[in-house]
Amino acid sequence: MGRKKNNRQPRPRVSLCMIVRDEATMLPDCLASVREAVDEVIVVDTGSVDGTPEIAAAAGATVLHHVWNDDFAAARNASLAAATGDWVLVLDADERLARGAGKVLRLALQRDDFDCGLLPLHNAARLDADIEAVRRGRDCASETSFLPRLLRRTDDLAFEGVIHENVTTWLLGHERTRILTGADIVHFGYTAAVQSNRQKHARDVALLEKAIDRNPKDASYYGYLALSHLEAGETALARRVAEEGWAHLPEPARGTEVVALRLAVARAATALDGGDYDRAFETIDVGQKHWPDHPDLWFLQACAAEALVHEAQTVSDRNTWLEEAERSFRETHAQRDGFFVQRFLSGATTWATWLRLGALALLRGRPRDAHQAFARAEEEGGPTDLCDLGRAEAFLAENHTDRAAKLIDRHLRRKTGTGRADAYLLGALVAEQKGDLPAMGKLLVETRRNLTGDFAAIHRRARFFDAVAVMALHHGEHVESPGPFGQLAVLLRGDDRSVKGGAARPADAGMLERLLHRLVATGHANALGNLLTPTAEAHLPGIGSTLTRVVDGMALQRAAG
Fold first, then answer.
1. Over 108-139, what HEC string results?
2. How far is the C-alpha of 43 from the C-alpha of 367, rounded, in Å?
3. Alpha helix locations (H) across 291-436?
4. Is the pLDDT of residue 197 over 70?
5. 1 falls in which pLDDT band (50, 70, 90)?
6. What number of CA atoms fall less than 13 Å from residue 25's CA on the CB side?
7. Region of 37 on the Ramachandran plot (φ > 0 left; ψ -120 to 50 alpha; else beta)
8. What is the predicted pLDDT for the residue at 344?
9. Cα 272 to Cα 305, 331, 348, distances in angstroms
């Protein structure tokens, strides 16, 4: 009897291709994570001085020395030229394959029904984060991206781009892609410790500026450069670069999605920062023609609508923008599990959207909905301090003053963190509810002292103006400021002609009643008479009935006493 013929195909070989420089700290864990997944390791070193090549060689890698020439694609292509596998896995030293990823890759390659494997990439929030926790969404700094990292090694496979190198041209000729769920990459280069590296930022900016000089009509480099400036807090530079690149944006077509997204995100974000909402909406509209339903664009649209809530001059406009902001934030969240090769706005489909929905619920007078939103924000990785402050504000709206104070005090004792000015402001509002005006005044001073730029939550700017106006009125001063309490100050002064428009947002009912109660009790009857006029009612609807209710209540208290 003859031997049974073996029709089994040989297992496809996989080459790990890396470029490195001074990665002695990160490289060992990266190489350890790929043992089950690859058959050979190609490491191209671009000038390390910390022993990186020796570490790679000791781990069994083929090490090539490449003279750095300000061209990331050239270094990547050197690694491809040395590879002998049927497939190429691309990783950086600050990345790790998650547990079980190697098995998933091997099983996928046996099917041989794709040319490009899109691997889920998760950004770790901390350098000491557990890989499995990051993969499951805990200790994760942003949403998952799906990147082309497992590539069939063909003759035309090549990277392009001196920085932010990519295989876009190759992908256009090899369209069979597959999402490899379970073959997860965890990236540690997104952590604050790494991102704060100003030397890396300066290097990237210099390379991108050179690339633009060589290719002044390539919109992709402008987008990368604008986003780089934006991440570094250089908003004015980001705005200028985004505007220059916008002039070179191609018409919507296959392959323009990511290029347009980068520029649209940068241009819309800088427009929002400058209060140019028309430019923001126009940018988002163009971006959505290239990439419909991308969550970053929905999120920016929601943020623009939210900003216009606070710019509204009428109650009708305010309600319209409230509804638009809520709708757009919910549409953003609906894209949470969608497939997107790149996302630029951290938390857009998770915690950041829930934080903003919580703030909108507070504006609508729905503290219970706000509590639920802030709880979801924390569940989905939101900063604990900002979630705490949101809950504290919801407790204030429910008149649970002590519960609000407990959360705020916890935040202020930390001495560090985001939202310091917000915490002092909310502390001042707690003091106002308790009737402790000296404490309120001190906390408002601290609010101003800790305010750099704007509040962590945009709606608290209006609450600050209200608090300052109320504090002044308690001391007999009539400070003009935006909002209902600024209008109240003008009316109490008896200067009807100085009142501008109606109040698009209502005054905080509890704060208003406490203020009127104190003014009545301290003998401001003559001034309060100015609130019982048609002019006052037109600018502050319901002010007459509120004042009457306060006076009647005080009369009943005196009669009962």
1. HHHHCCCCEEEEEEEEECCCCCCHHHHHCCCC
2. 56
3. 295-311, 315-334, 351-363, 367-379, 384-397, 401-413, 420-434
4. no
5. very low
6. 7
7. alpha
8. 87
9. 10, 19, 16
97 close to 184: Cβ distance less than 8 angstroms: yes
Q: Provide the token pair at 312.
A: 């509204």
Closest CA to 88 of 15, 187, 167, 28: 15
| Amino acid symbol at 299 | F
Phi, psi of 179 (to 5 degrees): -80, 125
pLDDT in tens, 211-240: 999 889 999 899 999 999 998 889 999 999
In the structure encoding, which two tokens stand for residue 233, read together?
């807090």
CA dihedral 480, 486, 491, 493 (to 10 degrees): -40
How many whole angstroms separate alpha carbon 491 and alpha carbon 459? Answer: 24
Q: How many CA atoms lie within 13 A of 158 on its CB side?
A: 7
How do residues 286-295 score in pLDDT, each as one tens digit? 999 999 989 9
Phi-psi region of 142 (alpha: psi -120 to 50; beta: other; left: phi over 0): beta
Whether the pLDDT of residue 10 is over 60: the answer is yes
> What is the DSSP-derived secondary structure letter of residue 35?
T
Q: How far is CA 122 from the centre of its chain?
A: 15
Q: What is the pLDDT of residue 498?
A: 61
Reported as a single tens digit per residue, the pLDDT across 488-498 is 888 888 776 66
> Pick from 467, 524, 474: which is nearest to 494 by CA?
524
